[in-house]
Design a protein that fits this description.
globular; 13 helices; single chain; mainly alpha; 69% helix
């Protein structure tokens, strides 16, 4: 009977005959996914090359107070080639979906809300508050030993970051740190809060209203605690030193700071510090 040839053994034989084509199809699909990911990254890189370090959304219709709030995150926005003046970042959604899990552990709405609340209410300022009395009240040659006595290896590492990094930064002939206030890491925390809120909105983990709630909450903290955009930007750098040390691309961060302070279209030069926030 003709149909006998389609028994189990013959079916397996037919599958094995087509297996190279199946495997090739899987490889093509995998290559296609990687190619799309590469294109998304290339788009962001190309935008950076063509537009420089200042990225302005020419179509924005945001009121000045909203643009002011976004400008609190300008240092991190510049680093990631994001628009400085709109809730939309200009980054591809695929890039954001890769960035949030990799750098923030954010994959779900609950992750997003939890992380945003942590940055707003605690952030790295909690750790800095633990060592601030030591910096204020003791000579520099005692700082590290006193922090080590707290038995927190992560805190010890951050103290080492500050001691090595701040010295190198201040020795830099191009450093413009004014030293008119004891530095802190609020600008670092709130700058990151604003970027994370924007990213989470862009991939629909939070609503637009929720994004603005977080953004304005961070902006109001900054306006209460600082006196100028220069103070915000330099204290962002200080927080970056605290977190990652001088060797972790700090020269690039300094270049972003310099561009933001000098570029005529930078929000640091177009937005008055005293704009009332809602």
């Amino acid at each position: 009977m003709e149909y006998v040839k389609y028994g189990k053994s013959n079916i397996m034989y037919e599958i094995l005959q087509f297996w190279p084509y199946i495997a090739g199809g899987i490889l093509l699909i995998s290559f296609g996914i990687k190619f799309v990911q590469w294109l998304a990254k290339a788009k962001d890189i190309t935008k950076s090359i063509l537009k420089g370090a200042i990225h302005i959304n020419e179509k924005t219709k945001l009121p000045l107070e909203h643009q002011w709030a976004l400008a609190v995150g300008a240092n991190l926005s510049a680093r990631n080639t994001m628009y400085l003046n709109s809730l939309e970042t200009g980054m591809s959604k695929l890039t954001i979906k890769q960035l949030l899990p990799e750098w923030w552990g954010i994959e779900t709405r609950d992750d997003a809300i939890g992380t945003l609340n942590w940055i707003l209410k605690h952030g790295h300022q909690d750790q800095y508050d633990a060592i601030k009395p030591i910096i204020w009240n003791h000579p520099e040659d005692e700082w590290l030993d006193r922090v080590k006595a707290l038995n927190d290896p992560d805190l010890t590492e951050k103290m080492e970051n500050l001691m090595e990094g701040t010295l190198k930064w201040l020795e830099d002939e191009e450093s413009d740190y004014e030293g008119d206030m004891l530095p802190d890491v609020l600008a670092w925390d709130m700058g990151r809060l604003i970027s994370v809120a924007r990213w989470c909105f862009e991939i629909e983990l939070i609503t637009e209203e929720e994004a603005w709630d977080y953004i304005f909450a961070g902006a109001k903290i900054i306006q209460r605690n600082y006196k100028s955009w220069h103070a915000v930007s330099t204290n962002y750098l200080y927080g970056r030193l605290f977190w990652g040390g001088y060797s972790m691309d700090f020269d690039v961060m300094k270049a972003d700071h310099k561009t933001l302070m000098e570029h005529e279209r930078s929000p640091f030069n177009t937005l008055d510090w005293n704009i009332p926030l809602p």
